[in-house]
Amino acid sequence: MAEISFGGLATGLPTEDLVSSLMAIERQPLNRLEAKKETETKRLEAYAQFNTLLGGLRDAVANLNLTSDVRTTSVRLSSNETISASSNGAATGSYDIAVAQLAQVQKTVTAGYSSRTAAVFGSGTFAINNVAVQIDSTNNSLDGLMGAINSVSAQTGVTASIINDGSTSDNFHLVLTGKDAATSFSLTYNLQDGQGAPIAIDATHVRAAQQAVVYVDGIEVVANTNTLTGVIAGVTLNLNQTSAIVTPGDGQTPPVYATTNLTVEADTGALKEKVGEFVTAYNKIMEWIVAGYEVGGRNQQTGDAADGDEAKDQPLSDLLRGDATINKIKRSLQSLLSTGVDSGSSLQILAEIGITTRQDGTLNLNASKLDDTLATKFDDVVGLLAGQGSLDGVMKRFNTYLRDVTSTTSGMYADKRARYTEAVKRFDQQIDQKEALMGKIEERIRNQFTSLELLVSNLNAQSNYLTQQMDIIANMMTKGRK
């Protein structure tokens, strides 16, 4: 049953209001603890937001960290008939290429058999390049021989399959294929039927194994495949057909083949886009540190609309104004920008390609200067950004720093989150203790008011009794005089 209170009946005091006011005073230390907890929560949200921006910069830097990502080049061919090609960070240059011979694997095909499962091979041995398999009643069919050959393919480099040519009889053919252009093979066998008569296998070498032969600027290149990588660093060559012979060979000198010109050109548009993404990501960080910024009509820190009273809400970055950790990261980023690098190129700082720092810490990208530098010193720009060999470029240094500062285990936010967890744990303990104390304090105050009410009630009762007695005495004295 709920407690019934008659506060103020004797004294006429607003007991509930007085208790509420006194408890409001008593709760002030508790309110301060809860306010501190809320502030710490908001600060952690601010750190998380800042960490997200750092992650955006890290992603932009990752696109400029590797030489293959920065040296964005494309391939132009004088003809697409004999070859096709693509570039993956290849250096600019020009090459004359002729295809003398395409790579092909050896193919050997048997005569046709009317059944895949009939026992047609008797017993004995079947060998590929002296690697023999035993043939008996368990595998002397076309399917069985195929399985036996494939069981030793790791040793021979030859695999077997069966083709149905669609004829009404003798339509199944065993096809043996070498694994690559360098694999040649021969077949030997000693098979007999049940009467000891030899069994012959009619097999035809329909295609001999041969390696691809390509001339790159007159240098002979031999390969086991028609897709060549590593011949020209960063370029993948696909051989489509042999080149036309310009001058036949005479036995003493090799033939001369028509060449296709391959030119690796700088793809400056892709690199400019990546540089622009870096500048944008960097500026978001600096703008966040300096003040809230607006994109698309909404404040990116608070998520509030840019117009109206809601836009006046405090941006999260304000909670970290002057924060030592934020300032340290800011100084580190600015130092990475301004410190020169020995990348093996003629360029040492980003300002030389048009990236300069404004007074507020944000970056300005001079597009014209970047275009001019890319047009005249493309490889030097690559070296400045991504480095060369063991030499680090600007973005490699950025990448190393940002990976550390955004680490999910030891980075800035990971550290702040751990500290926040400990702080909130302490606040919660103190709040729980004070909440328990508030109940006791309120009970004490209410008991004091109850005691006051009882005291006043008793005094009122005594006062009423005395008044009654005085009235009786007064009445008696008045009757006596009469």
Automatic annotation (TrEMBL):
Give a Pfam family name. FliD_N
Where's the Flagellar hook-associated protein 2 C-terminal domain?
209-461
Question: Where does the Flagellar hook-associated protein 2 N-terminal domain start and stop, copy by copy?
Answer: 11-106
Where are the annotated coiled coils located?
417-444
Q: Where does the UniProt entry say this protein principally localizes?
A: secreted
Annotated keywords:
Bacterial flagellum, Cell projection, Cilium, Coiled coil, Flagellum, Secreted
Q: What is the purpose of this protein?
A: Required for morphogenesis and for the elongation of the flagellar filament by facilitating polymerization of the flagellin monomers at the tip of growing filament. Forms a capping structure, which prevents flagellin subunits (transported through the central channel of the flagellum) from leaking out without polymerization at the distal end.
The reply on keyword Coiled coil is: yes
Q: Which InterPro entries match?
A: Flagellin_hook_IN_motif (IPR010810), FliD (IPR040026), FliD_C (IPR010809), FliD_N (IPR003481)
Kindly list the places in or outside the cell where this protein is found, as annotated in its UniProt entry.
Secreted; Bacterial flagellum
Q: What is this protein called?
A: Flagellar hook-associated protein 2
The yes or no answer to whether the keyword Coiled coil is present is yes
The UniProt entry's sequence similarity note says: Belongs to the FliD family.
The organism encoding this protein is Desulfofustis limnaeus
Subunit note:
Homopentamer.
Gene3D superfamilies (UniProt xref): 3.30.70.2120
